[in-house]
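Task: sequence in, structure out. Protein: Acyltransferase.
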Amino acid sequence: MEPVDGPICLNRLTLYSKLWRHFDRGLYNFFKTYIYIPICMPTFSIQRKIFGILVSYSFVLLWHGLQYANLIWITLNILALFMEYGAKGFYAIKGIQEWREKHISDIAFRRILACLHVIPFVTGLYSNFYFLGGYVVGSIFYTRIFCEETLELRFPAILLLILAYFYAQVCIELERRQNLSEIKTDSKNISKKVN
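Result:
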């Protein structure tokens, strides 16, 4: 029996699908193997996938306790995940991809992606305020930062959003470099096997 790898540094994640996949790999593998895939089989339809996600997160909620702050935490995590999957599904449409490739350069598209990464990232931050601090602390952050600053477009909120954009750019670049490194490692391993 081989243990799963430890968690990756959360300071380089903006997407919650990656957080859940890489933070607690054992829990992720358990949910994927024993809850999500059996629920989604045999068709893997969108309805089954949504139900599989809801059941998986329900187990997380039960594990951490049926408290209002945990319910908000789980709900915001699910919302961030659905936003991410919805955007990926939208971009998977062949006509959308062709239009993007024709009208938007790769550099401009990466900038758009970084802006879009801010949305689930910020949603995840608010969810963690509730999870780590409880309902009162989460509500203070939500009221003070989101309601009083962001919705009214005051300077601190604009500064935080700009910083979140740059953070998303750094995260995208780190992931790109990691993927390139894995490709190089895989190709070296393949060439060693061939020789």
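Residues 10-179 form one domain.
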